[in-house]
Specification:
The chain is of the alpha/beta class. The chain has one domain: 3-Layer(aba) Sandwich (Rossmann fold). The protein is 50% helix and 9% strand. It has a six-stranded parallel sheet with strand order 3-2-1-4-5-6, with helices on both faces. β5, α12 and β6 form a beta-alpha-beta unit.
């Protein structure tokens, strides 16, 4: 990769155009229905059009970023680390939950190897952005170097630019990495100031004893690394993950390219929070797909000023929630395009005396 200038990316990020939002809302308010009666579907279409300048979506794409974590050695997951590469093969074969839901949403799935501890060779369909074969154990030291963190961000930024060049109008984030709820909870604790117990949940389904151990591991990681919440890149480097960095970079890149991005669950939101902490206007481009059952997710969303679109008890990741929420975006835009105005429909507007 060429030398990465993070500041140059941040300098390209602009807030959403308030005038554009108002103009689109005026159109929505003239449609043959009570004002505001379609609730958040109106919000989706209004924000999407203001950000993209389009009233339709040509291509939808979900990037599922994969990486392994040294902290898995602490026994914080119900699944062994070997599952990460196994699931990457499943994504490529189209047999995972995100593949099924992406097909339902009419979206592509692109799988990105950010740091899986496995040699995939020249696996067709896999985007190779491997930084290293997994992060170091955050319970004993930093996950990665600052340079590695910047390289992970760079990879995501470049994927967003490539998507824009290929005519993709809506992106989604996804993740795969055994033990990655542990660094995500650590990131949540750093930026919210909450104790690890308030932001840590069961991940893949660990029992009470394992959850208590996981919380203690996160407390150790925070004590050993002392990440500075005023330096989001340092937070990523000290307690993050390679796939988390890739997602954060993608979200940053989407904001720089003017692309709306549907952010998935807990891991994706931890990554998106790193991006929004780097630049406040990044949040204008973020759509929170759903509320995960992971207890830390609500705190991340609150910090970002985001209200989730769905609450279906999901806790899988992969981009599954993003795929589902993309269908809501399509619905909102269809309403915007197809519902007639009162005048065009020959319908009298209600008047309150």
């Amino acid at each position: 990769m060429s030398q990465f200038n993070l500041q140059s990316v941040l300098n390209r990020i602009r807030p959403v155009d308030a005038d554009a939002l108002a103009q689109i809302q005026q159109r929505i308010d003239r449609q043959a229905k009570p004002p505001g009666s379609l609730g958040r579907l109106e919000e989706l279409s209004r924000r999407y059009v203001a950000l993209s300048g389009r009233v339709d979506i040509r291509r939808k794409r979900i990037y599922t970023f994969a990486g392994d974590h040294g902290v898995a050695a602490e026994g914080v997951s119900a699944f062994p680390a070997e599952v990460t590469p196994q699931m990457v093969y499943n994504f490529i074969d189209g047999g995972a939950a995100v593949n099924a839901l992406a097909r339902h949403a009419g979206a592509e799935v692109c799988v990105v190897d950010m740091g899986v501890n496995h040699d995939f060779g020249r696996l067709k369909g896999l985007i190779d952005c491997k930084i290293a074969p997994g992060t170091a154990n955050i319970a004993t030291g930093p996950a990665m170097t600052r340079d590695e963190a910047l390289r992970a961000l760079q990879a995501g930024v470049q994927l967003a630019a490539q998507a824009r060049a290929e005519g993709v109008d809506l992106l989604g984030t996804g993740d795969m990495g055994i033990a990655n709820t542990t660094p995500s909870a650590a990131i949540a604790a750093v930026f919210t100031g909450l104790d690890a117990a308030q932001v840590t949940h069961r991940g893949t389904g660990i029992d009470d004893a394992a959850l208590a151990h996981k919380i203690e591991v996160i407390r150790r990681a925070l004590a050993v690394n002392a990440p500075d919440p005023q330096d989001p890149v340092e937070v990523l480097a000290k307690v993050g993950g390679f796939e988390i960095g890739g997602i954060a970079g993608l979200v940053l890149g989407c904001a720089a390219e003017g692309l709306p991005v549907m952010v998935d669950g807990f891991i994706s939101t931890a990554a998106a929070l790193i991006a929004t902490e780097l630049h406040p206007h990044v949040r204008d481009y973020v759509f929170a797909a759903h509320q995960s059952v992971e207890i830390g997710h609500q705190h991340l969303l609150h910090r970002m000023g985001q209200e989730p679109l769905l609450d279906l008890g999901l806790r899988l990741g992969e981009g599954t929630g993003a795929a589902l929420a993309m269908t809501l975006m399509e619905a909102g835009l269809r309403v915007l395009r197809e519902v007639l105005t009162f005048d065009a429909a020959g319908v009298s507007e209600g008047v309150v005396e």
